[in-house]
Amino acid sequence: MTRPRNYQTEAVIIKKTKLGEADRILTLYTPDLGKIQAVAKGVRRPRSKMAGHLELLTHSQVSLARGRNLDTVTGSQTIDGFLPLKGDLELTSCALYIAELTEQFTADHDENRPLFELLLKTMHRLCQDTDRELTLRYFELHLLDLTGYRPQLGRCTACSQALKPETNFVSPCAGGVLCPGCQPTQPAAHPLSLDALKVLRWLQDSEAEDFGRLKVSRPLSREMETLMRACLRYLLEREVRSTAWRDTLREQAAPRQVAEEEGEG
Ligand SMILES: [Zn+2]
User: Fold this and answer.
1) What is the structure's pLDDT at 99?
2) Is 160 buried (19+), middle (13-18) or exposed (0-12) by CB count in 10 A?
């Protein structure tokens, strides 16, 4: 379908790149047009009226004019500025992480409304007092589902036997779990504890409106993060850039967390 010369769309700004003296190329994730890139002219000038409505991690109503190569933003109005995400470095890093994954796992103009909704829902959830790591795992699993990479967590990906309640293995290249009998065929597979398998399955199958019920220990949380990171790295053929920043923030926070845990004991 050809887009009209001028059109409007809701969008979340998921990436920005400098262009020339005062412009930016924005990557917008939209409900009906999927991912689009557009030039925002003059938004790096201090007095730009549009700049505030086109910040990263902002949900806006955007007007665009179709161009020969890139479309141009002609107007913008904030729907939700997601200020809590911008006022806390740790939260910013989580939100940039899901924005980066959305950008990396999608192609331009490939409509995926459920993914737009997942992105918005996850940004809202990060603003609430929920377990951030579980929120990110939920996002990763459902992103993979919606982009055709749903990991198989019910049966062994090699022999198709139902998985038993024991330590199994995650194979990023097989796209799911291997039973202990099949694991020797893939020595690079990572051990997967029964608890991690249960939580990942629950996240994959639930609508997860109620994260409060689920309590996950820090080691279990780290195990799931490591496994998902290995799968995403395999699919993208590189690290997700924003994970490096998240790791740095966590290292800086580590002495405080240890002190809190000692205080709990
Ligand atoms: Zn097997």
Assistant:
1) 98
2) exposed
